[in-house]
Input
Amino acid sequence: MRELNAFLFITNICVVILCGALLPIIPLLTRKSFLFGVKVPPEVQNTDEAKALKRSYVTITIIGGVIILAASIWQYIAAPDYTIFALMFFPFALAAVQFSAFAPNHGKALKLKAALKWHVAEISFADTKTSFTRGNLSAMPHFWYVISLIIVFLSFVISLVRYPELPDMVPTHWDFNMQADAWLPKTIGAVLLMPLLNIGIVALMWLTGVLIEKAKLQIDHKEPAKSFAQHKKYRRLMGHGIGILTLAMVVLFLVLELQTVLIGFTVPFWLILAIVLVPTALICVMAVRAGQGGTLLKVNAAEMGAAANGDIVGNNAMNDDKYWAWGLFYHNSDDPACFVGNRFGGNIGFNYSRLPVKIGVALGLAALAASYVWTISLFRALI
Output
């Protein structure tokens, strides 16, 4: 239990530091045409009023992040057996810090826009099926998922071939020294647990790639060709990033499966961590350097020309502040899109007025709540 708590503590600290460091720089990554979820002219970002709002946000997020980091360390020292709960709930505390920093500034930005008459000139756009606002799924790097599925298939084959020769109890968990410390009776379900999880991982990651590819975009009306070109480049980069992460996670579960079905096969713990942490770190760096929706990416004349030759389209309704609750949640029943580009932070959001989104969000929250209840009951039994 001590080694598990130490592992959970290290994981929690990494999450808090990574997210805590990311929160203050989000305004720098967000599109220049938005100020805390409010549509504004890009030149507004250089005004004293906008800079004051950003300083306020940065101050609150830094102070909040430091407090949560200190609380994480104190929790582990005072009650190490409850570290799993810190890992589960401290990310929500970070989200609360971000919202407490964002919400007041969103309200102030709305008032400043009205008082200082920050008018945004609209350009008429027509949404078409062939537009760049929806990516083409054929452009996704599907080969990463094909390779991942081949590995999953091989893990099924290896597990079924080895099944008759396995002992009555099979390992399902390993400590820091990669020595088995938990077992289950040999059943088809226990032996095929990792390959089955792998199928779910591939499906989930593929859907993530689809969301990025198909989301309706937030377009810079002053430079639409450049904006579309940046979005297209961003989708390509993130598509490969998500595909590589998918392959890494599949390889990780393959290694764990081999440790279950091949007696004596072990892999160093540092290699287990590196398999996932390295591609995850690369994606984080890529996302930060690209900016929200690729707004920090450099595009050449040829890339902008290709975008200009396509259907330069958009959606004026998405640019109306009244359709964005707190500048974060898009709700427009007249817009058929379910997935849209966000105005702050994350790149992909939802149209919460659409029934499929309401059902999906409700099911997701229910599944999250059920997983938390199960985890809490499990660890309370162990403490």
About this structure: The first strand starts at residue 34 and ends at 35. The chain is about 60% helix and 5% strand. Confidence is low (pLDDT under 50) at residues 123-132, 310-314. The radius of gyration is 24 Å.
